[in-house]
Structure formats: structure tokens, C-alpha cells
Amino acid sequence: MSHRVNPIKEMIILSLLGTIVFVLQSALSFLPNIEPVSFLLIIYTLILGKKAIIPAMVFNMLIGLLRGMGTWWFGYLIVWPLLVLIVLLFKNIIKENFLGWSILSGVFGLIFGALYAIPQIIITSPSVALAYWIRGIPYDIVHMVGNYFIMLILGKRIYKLLSSLLKKSLN
Question: Given CA atoms 139, 22, 55, 157 in this order, what sign does their dihedral have?
Fold first, then answer.
């Protein structure tokens, strides 16, 4: 007998996961370019698959609503769903190898500024977007190192814990 997931319960849990991302990102916002968003979205995607797009979008909406939907926010609308898609592409290759996920997370941190500059091409110009990206490279390096070590240290543990909790919660 297969168990059907209650869609309301599932949406509440997915929304809470997005809220957790927002709360943790806000709590750690005093650390420059050290953030739990990449980490959690990778873990969520490994566990939930394509449904991880919902916590990503809940996070985007919360941060936009509470901090304002300025031009900076458009970068988030591209970057975080793109991370979910990247993880989906690599999920069957990297599997549960958290050194691999640490490397992917680090690379994502390094290219974050380039991806985040994409809306600047449309809003301003390619030269402004390029200058924005280049100016931010030192921050992207910090982002890379932070992402790498957060995943390396916490990835497997949090994956196992959340995987167990979500399987129980969604059944």
C-alpha cells in the first residue's frame, strides 16, 4: 500500500523549510558572505528533489518582503532557483559524496557574484554588470571558502538528520 502525502501538510513543511533558510540567513548576516542559504538549498534538493524550489522561492519572497524588493532582489530570483537546478543536474553524479557537494558549494560561492550580476546587464548595462562582478571577487572568494567548509563539516550530518525528519513528517 502506498502512502499519499497530504498536500497541505507538504506545503506547510516546504514553506517552513524556506522560513528556516530566511531565519538562519538573517541570524548570520553579520558575517560577510558566510551564509547558510547555499548549504540548506543543496541539502533540501538532495532530499526533496525538484520540490526544493518551493523553499527557495519562499526564502526569496520573505527576504524581498522584509528587506525590500530593490534591484538587488532580482539577483536572488535567479541565483537560488538556479542552485536548485544545478544540484538536480549533479544529484545522480555526486550522490551522497559530501566532498563533492563541498566542492560544488564552494564553486557556487565563487561564481555567485557573476550570477548575481546578470540582472545588472538588463537593469543597467553589461559594463556595469562586469564592474559589479569584478569589484565583488574578493567577497566571492570568502563566499567560496565559507560554502566549502560549511558543507564539508555539516553536510553529511544535516543531510541524514533532515532526511530522517522529513521522511517521517511527510508520511
Answer: positive
Residue 170's pLDDT band (cuts 50, 70, 90) = confident
d(C-alpha 140, C-alpha 136), whole Å: 6
pTM above 0.90, yes or no: yes
Q: Decide if 18 contacts 77 (C-beta within 8 A).
A: no
Round to whole Å and give the CA distance between 36 and 24: 7
Q: Contact 136/113 with Cβ under 8 angstroms?
A: yes
| 74: exposed, middle or buried (Cβ count in 10 Å: 0-12, 13-18, 19+) | middle
Rounded to whole angstroms, the Cα distance separating 25 from 98 reads: 22
